[in-house]
Write a structure and sequence with these properties.
alpha/beta, Nucleotidyltransferase, domain 5, six-stranded mixed beta sheet, two-stranded antiparallel ribbon, 8 strands
Length: 395
């Protein structure tokens, strides 16, 4: 852009003052009135203005670069002072005069913008970038929240599937397998069920079973009701026939009052150790059968006899007992109805009604007698009332 009218007027006055010694004639006036054609004819102030504009443009570019590189320092870029510009005629143009002209020309030339406006634009761009960065962060947070919720749902679904896949107690029906093998093949839950069924679980130890079956701080003597159980071994060609090998009797509180091994009266062909727990050394040093038979008969005389499948026990002892004084847990109707079985096992009754495990491996005649007595005491009042009513009806 060209200089303003005021600037051109000032330039003319200064040029006239500088050429005061030149002759004033009509030819010279015509030459002065013509527009300048050669570079020497341009005004020194005009050249100073051009130099100042170049320096101004350079300073504005530098300020823009500094604003872009250092966004933290938001200081406006100050225009550098322009050096003194020598004029053609030897006069030196001062910075003040050029600054005045610069101010005047800046008003007339709209393309030259202040550096501060550039800085403001840069700051606006930076603010826009920050706001877009915040939006991106919020989007990332939302995505993370969605991922976390999906992971939680996935874990819940996995947990539900794991619970559904866990074996139930009815599925673990085998009793002759080592729980360690079950744990290796199926898992810890199945092994836990197997240990519980075998009576090997810490919460289902022998002490805990005894606590259920035996009453502490009770008498060790004879009571009105006693429970008996016998272990047997096989005789004959295939070991199908049975003879007594051990007799155990407990009182009403579960305390053992009689326990003896019996010498075999015949040659044993099957000790049935896996079930009976009897070994040759046990019965070879046992009591004579006649002695055991007499001692047991004396204990049972006049007392209520409790047991499970007592007919088999009395048969191997060659003893008889009044039917009205027998309390057989296998033949008690309320027990049959509860476990839904016509001939329930002692193991099933104890598991269902007492929540204890018996006969998990080798049988013990003492524990079986204690279990039968505990079942009897559980229903003693109702059982005895039912027996009395039955006797009254017969009479």
């Amino acid at each position: 852009p060209g200089p303003s009218a005021a600037a051109r007027g000032k330039g003319r006055r200064r040029r006239r003052k500088g050429h005061g010694e030149a002759p004033k004639g009509p030819g010279m006036a015509a030459a002065a009135a013509r527009p300048p054609r050669d570079p020497q004819e341009f005004s020194s102030n005009w050249k100073a203005l051009q130099e100042l504009l170049k320096q101004k443009a350079k300073s504005s570019n530098e300020s823009l670069a500094t604003c872009q590189t250092d966004t933290k320092k938001k200081q406006p870029v100050k225009a550098a002072k322009s050096p003194d510009v020598p004029a053609i005629n030897g006069n030196v143009g001062k910075a003040k005069s050029t600054n005045k002209m610069d101010n005047g020309s800046a008003k007339d030339s709209p393309p030259l913008a202040k550096p501060e406006s550039k800085g403001v634009a840069v700051n606006k761009n930076l603010n826009a970038a920050k706001s877009s960065g915040k939006i991106c962060k919020e989007k990332k947070k939302n995505v993370n929240v969605v991922k976390e919720s999906n992971e939680i749902k996935h874990k819940k679904r996995k947990a539900e599937e794991h619970v559904e896949q866990q074996p139930k107690e009815a599925d673990i029906w085998f009793d002759d397998v080592d729980p360690k093998d079950i744990e290796a093949a199926i898992g810890p839950e199945a092994a836990k069920i197997a240990r519980r069924k075998l009576g090997l679980e810490t919460g289902q130890s022998k002490e805990s079973v005894e606590q259920v079956l035996v009453k502490e701080n009770a008498t060790d003597g004879l009571t009105r009701a006693v429970a008996m159980d016998c272990e047997m071994v096989g005789v004959g060609p295939k070991g199908e026939d049975s003879i007594v090998a051990r007799v155990s009797i407990v009182n009403q509180f579960g305390k053992c009052i009689y326990d003896k091994y019996v010498k075999p009266t015949e040659k044993v062909t099957d000790y049935r150790t896996a079930v009976s727990g009897i070994r040759p050394q046990n019965i070879n040093t046992g009591e004579d059968f006649k002695t055991v038979q007499k001692e047991v008969a004396d204990i049972l005389k006049g007392r209520i006899l409790v047991g499970h499948a007592l007919r088999n026990d009395l048969k191997v002892l060659f003893l008889d007992h009044p039917q009205k004084k027998i309390r057989d847990t296998q033949r008690y109707k309320p027990f049959k109805q509860r476990v839904k079985s016509s001939r329930p096992s002692l193991k099933l009754l104890c598991e269902t009604l007492l929540n204890v495990q018996v006969q998990t491996s080798e049988h013990c005649s003492i524990q079986d007698a204690q279990a039968a007595m505990r079942l009897y005491t559980l229903e003693k009042k109702k059982w005895e009332a039912a027996v009395k009513n039955k006797v009254k009806k017969k009479n």
